[in-house]
Structures are given as structure tokens and as C-alpha cells.
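Discussion board: Methods & Data

I've been asked by a reviewer to show the raw model output for two of the constructs in my manuscript, not just the figures. I'm not sure how much to include, so I'm pasting the format here to get opinions. Each protein appears as its amino acid sequence followed by a line of C-alpha cells. Is this the kind of thing reviewers expect to see in a supplement, or should I convert it first? Here is construct A:
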Amino acid sequence: MPIEFRRAARALISVSDKTGLVDFARGLAALDIELISTGGTHKALVEAGLEVLDVADVTGFPELMDGRVKTLHPKVHGGLLAIRENPEHEAAMLAHGISPIDLLVVNLYPFQATIDAGADFDQCIENIDIGGPAMIRAASKNFNDVAVIVSVEDYAPLLAELRANGGATTLALRQKLAQKAFARTATYDAAISNWLAEQIGEDAPAFRAFGGKLAQTLRYGENPHQKAAFYVTPERRYGVATARQLQGKQLSYNNIGDTDAAFELVAEFDPERTAAVAIIKHSNPCGVAEAASIEAAYALALRCDPVSAFGGIVALNRRLDARAAAEIVQVFTEVIIAPEADEEAIAIVGAKKNLRLLLTGGMPDPRASGLTLRPVAGGLLVQGRDNAVVDDMELRVVTKRAPTEAEWRDLTFAFRIAKHVKSNAIVYAKDGATVGIGAGQMSRVDSTRIAAMKAADAAKAAGLPRSLAVGSVVASDAFFSFPRWRSDGNRGGGDGAHSAGGIRARRGGHRGGGRRGGSPWHSPDSVISATDFAHTPFSGVARSRGVNPPLRLYLIVLFNKTLCNLL
């Protein structure tokens, strides 16, 4: 039968992070708890004037092998694992001179910080803690009798409980601390195993561990009946997990997901080359643009779908300035995320008390490796992060006419956006801005219709006589039957401006469509392909003739799912 209150008479302290150590140890000493310590921890406590027993005096062994062996000894582990009031355990302790240890305080070697700092292989290996996790697991297993602390943040609550209970801990606290301690060692081991797998080039290890630390509990998940929490992983990637929230309500589950999607999208644009803004709703972009300034890019992004932008997430790849902030706050917005912000911009946003402002301090690298996870019943799908960047692709023209420089710019812009649109994905873009986006439909034809409708609606909202899709680039995340696209797109409105001649992959070539819906069409006169993927994507340019009003040049881009990780 577990004992509810267990008096702590003896504590072993061995910590790498010495934050708050001396005050905590003084609090224990004031409760007549004997202190045992190791190495640098012992030195710090002695220098602070505390009476501390060196662990070597307990074990009868000095530290060995450059400190690799300090606490791996029966007099330490026996003191942690012995079951109190168990006659056999008590007899063994008496026979071997083992005294019980009632409180263990350990934080581990900073392995993650070491690899984050770019240390070499040998340094990383030396920062793998062995004795610490062994003691933590021993104390945690014996939570009926032993309390274990693995985090500085638990010093104050433990001291408060000890003082309230005459130097004793409660079973409930010991159980809670044990659970946290096991989670800590699991996370620590996950970081080590994942790092070593990366070092040896093992993409699919036999066992895969993932670790995270609680960042915040959430009011609910995607729906009100779902419980949720937000955990941060060891990966130091600029984004919502590392951002500093300056103001506004706590982020919700959906806010966090949408903010991450927005910032990852806008990171596709190099801030040294262009300003870019993405507006996200339900993980899909409803407007993206690049321009000379954040203010101009926001105006173009908002123009694409101002209705859907209401209540959305706005992500920037450059500093938020006052002019841009003044425009953004005119529309109800849930979150703004940016690498930095001017003081004047912060003040402008501050007038909207519920608007969250997140500053990350930098932009994530779209080329960086990493993993993405997707749960399935009874398992996890694990794959590498989609770090394909269009600038790095080998694109080749496979028709007589090559795209113009302006067409190339819009082509690469469209590639960047469609990568972040849920499949089936269709993106209309023109002059560095999206003008219509169709996302997440079971039929690519339906996504085309939606994108065409959005482009027409945006034109009406802006007071323009023709669809924004006129003269635009069109991007699709996979092969499309172009004769079908041509006819359905033409019915979508905008004088057929969202459609173009059919393209169909055939032995590396293409073939065009004919006349449909009263509009004359002909084969594209320029096709390009990206050759560094298993299934060749295609793009093309089509020109229509004899139509009143005359149609401008269209660029159609196709690329398959090996380019974009679209779920």
C-alpha cells in the first residue's frame, strides 16, 4: 500500500543547468534534508556555503573516465530503487551499507543545445548523459517512495509542498513528477536517436521516436469537443513555435495551424529580393503577392479574395511597417506573423486588442531538410519536408517558342503558391499576385471552376470590367485533361480568360484542343518541363486569335505531387 506522505530526509542533486540551484538547495537544507551532489553541482553548492556530501564519499569510488562514471553505483541506485517497508530490501540495504535517497534532482547534459550550436560529432557524443537518465528512471519507477525533479520550474512547487507538509511529499505529487520525468528521458533519447540516424544517413530507422515539450494547453482542438495542446520540438525553425507573441488572445488550435501554413508559404520568397504577403484561411491561401513593399504586396494579396480574407492569417517575409499595419488592421484579422515590426507598427496593431502579433526574428529556410508527420489509424506516415524550390529546378523549354521574361516570373511565382494549396490545386496568377485560387476539390475541374469564379468575383469587387484571370498564369499541382479544362474553364466566366488550349503529355510532347464554346483555341506554342522529378511536369503558353475582346497571353503550368507535398 503506497504511503500518502513520504518524509524527504536525503536528496541527491546533479544538474547541468544551475539556474536557481543555490536558493533551492538552501530551501532543502532549511528543512533538514541532507544534500548529496556531484562534480560541478557539488562545487557550486560548497562555494555558496552549503554543507554538501560528495557522491564519491557515498559510493567509495571517485569519478572515473573523464566523468563518464559518477553515479552508476549500487549505493546510488539502491538508495533510489529500494522499496521502503519491504523487509528483503531493507535487509539488502543494511547488508551493503546503502542509505535511502528520498529526493532526486537532475537536469541532463544539454545535448540538444550542443547539436544546435553546430558542435562536432565527438562533442555531441560527450554531451549524451548516461548517469542522469539512469537515476531519473530509477527514481521515477519508485515514485511511491521517491520524488524526482527534472525541471527548474518545479523547484518552487516542490519547496512549497515540503514546507506545507513538514518536509514530506504527497503521493499525488510524486506520481505527477514521475510521469514528467519519464517523458523527459523519452524526449531526450528521441533527440539522440534522431540525430544519430541523421548522422549515418538512416532515413527509415527500425524504431522512430519523436519528442516535444508542452508550450501551451489549448481551450479545445479543431472542434470544441476535442482536447488539444501545443508542443514544441527540438527543431529550431523560425515560425509559430519559436515566435514571440506581443499581444492578443491566446492562439487557438486552428490559429496555430493556419499561422504555420502562412509563414511557410511566405518563406518561399527571399526577403532580400522582394516583399511578400500571404493571407491564409483554413490552411489554404486566399491571396498571395510579391511587390516592392509589404504595403503593396498586402493590397494585391487582399484583392484576390477579400471575402475569404476576413478573419484570416496574414504572414509577411519582411518587417511590418506602419503603412502596412495601417492597411492590415482595416480588415478583421486573427493573426499577423512577421520576422520583425517597427515600434509605430506595433502601436497601430496594439489598438486592436484581440489581434495577435507574432514576431519570429527570422524566416525559415524553404530548402532545409526535416520531417513531416501524418497520423493514420495505428501508425504514422513520415516523410521528408517538401523542400523543393523552383529556383533550383532544371526547367527546359520543349516547344519552339520560349516564355518571355515576364512569363517566366509569373511561372515561378505560380509554382511557389500551388505548392502550398491543398490538392486538387489550381492557381491563377498575374504580375506577381494570385488572382484566383481553387483548392481541395475532389475534381480538378471543380477547382478550376472555383478559381475562375474567384477571379471574376475579385474583378467585380474591384470595379473592373473583366475577370482578373485575363492574361494570367495558371498552375495545377498535377496532370490535367486540357480539353476538359478548356470547356469547363470557358463556362466559368471571364470571356474564357481562365482557359487555354489543351495540353496532354504524350511521349514528351503535347497536343492541342479545338474550338469549344464559341471561342477559338489552338495548341500552346511554348511548353516547358522540369526534369528533376520522376514524372515530368508540363507547362505551356496558349494564344487565342480572332476573339472580341482579344485575349492576352496565357501560361499554363502543370507539376505533379513529387513537387508539392499536398494532402
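Construct B, same format:
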Amino acid sequence: RPHLSAPENLMGVLGTFHVVRCVNCRHLFMNPRPTLETLAACYPAGYGPHRPQNENSASPTSPEGEEKVAAPSAPQKTPWYLRPSVRSIPGLKRLYHWLTDTRSQILPPPPNADARALELGCGTGQFLDSLRSVGWNCEGVELVAAAAEGARRRGFPIHEGTLESAAFPDETFDAAFAWHVLEHLPDVRASLQELYRVLKPGGILAVSLPNVGCWEPIVFGRNWYVWELPRHLHFFNPARLRRLLNETGFVDVKVTHQRNLLNVVGSSAICLKRVSPRSRFAARLLDYPNEPKLWGQLAMAPFAIGLAWLHQGGRLTVTARRGDSSTAGKKL
């Protein structure tokens, strides 16, 4: 059943693309959509997630919320709100960490010195750097050649292509991460089954993705920032994703609503750009989600935290563990 039609809003890819809803399970997906052979062409040079991130953007967190940050490559000026004289104020450091914990990624400690981690859709390797900094032996899979080369320059083994083409042996990894990747995959179920195969029993799976079940697509309609057609092929709500993970053998599924308003900023920019196509402010606002500034995160934190508490966050972080073989394919 047709749901909406929209142009590509971010990178100048020509065409109008269509999202439909399955009449049986209510799942939303792009149709028609790119094939594996044409998918890479949907990611032009300069695509935001393939650019090295600003050091002031949100940092990965441990499950307890403590920041785990890889060492910066060059000295940077310390902002006023991080200077020792300011951070010495009682309670300010705790408040700062609470406000800046977006819960967008987790960075668990490795279970042993030989633990191996895989990042699917690793981009230029920034999160792999964070994994390595806490002791993981890690490698990545990346579809786009330029991004894969950037990750290789950081010293990581990178498999250029898809998860299936990498052909890892069974039960290779202790953990697998896929940050804003599932929505880009032509066959999400098949990819989750492959992740199940390459994870060791009890291995961690951690993913993030847009939340189509929140208020944002209702308010912004076809201007919702993370429709991102034709690169986003599937759109999940928490219940649908939980069910799919259970059906592919994963257990202990935990869904966290991220505490950020990046989709709102991007969607507002798209609305403004439609009214004023040449607006420089709209262009800067549209690029903000790729390189969010810490001051902006602090300013929006109270609203973002409130929406997450109401389970209306526009982005989800989901963790699960690989169950034993008896859970694979079982509908829970």
C-alpha cells in the first residue's frame, strides 16, 4: 500500500522515491529500491557518515553511561565549560555527563584479551578506533570504497563489500555493531541471520536506527530527515524490530530511545530549504546532524531527554545477544 513519495533531500540524487506499507505486517519499506549492484551509487562523495567526525560530536558510552573517548589526533582548545575551574563546581561534572550522554552508541569492555568485534558499515573507522582503545581486536565491513580506504588508513582490516560477501567463518566474533546500518540493507532479515551465524553464542549485537514509530514523521511528513531516500530502504518501530530480532535468534533485546534532536534539526532544515532553496542558513542547518556541536547538544538536552523518557526519541539504540540454535527462526 502506498505510504508516501519524496525526492532525495540531502545529496542531490535525482528522482522521486516511494515508501510503501506491507498490508500484512505493516512494515514500511522503499519500493522499488536499489539492488546490491546499484546500492553504492546512492552514496555520493561527501556523504555525511563517511566523513571523519568532529571531536566535539557525541562520544560512545559504556552501558553505565561513562564516556569512552579515543584520543584526539591533534590538540584542541578546551571550551570554557570543560575548563578545570568550571568543572570543579560541585555536581557540574555529573550534570555535564548526564546532559551529553545521548545513548547513541555503547562501548562495552571486551570479555577477554582475544575478543574480536565486527562493525558493519564502519565508514572511515572512527568507532573502530574507539573499540581498539578499550582493548577489542576489531575489523569492519564497508560497501563504499573511499570510506573503506579511510578505515584502512587507520590500520584496520576492512572487507569492502557486503557482510555476506565477506564470508566470515561461523562463530568468529564476540560482538557486532551496526550504527545506522540496518535501514540501508536490502534484506534486513538475511543480514541479521548472517550476523547470528558469525557471532559466538552469547555474543553481543548492538545497532542503531531511526524510529518511524515516534512523533517526528507525523509532524514533518515527507520532509522527515531520516526518510533519506534512496539510501534508507526499511523503516522500523521498536515492536517490529524486536520481533525481527527474536525471529532471527537473538534474545535479551533492549531498546533505548536516544536523547538527541538531530532528526528535528535536519527536518526543520529541509522544510526551510523548500521555502527558500538558496538559504545558506538552511544549508548549514541541514549539515548540522553530520557534525553536531556540543553547545547545541547541551542546549537541546532537556527536550531530548524528555522525549526519550516518553519513548518518543527519533533514533533507537538496540542491544541483544545471540541465543542458542534453538531460538533461531522461532517466533516469540
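Answer (T.O., handling editor elsewhere):
This is acceptable in a supplement if you add a one-line summary per construct. For B, something like: The two ends are 27 Å apart (CA to CA).
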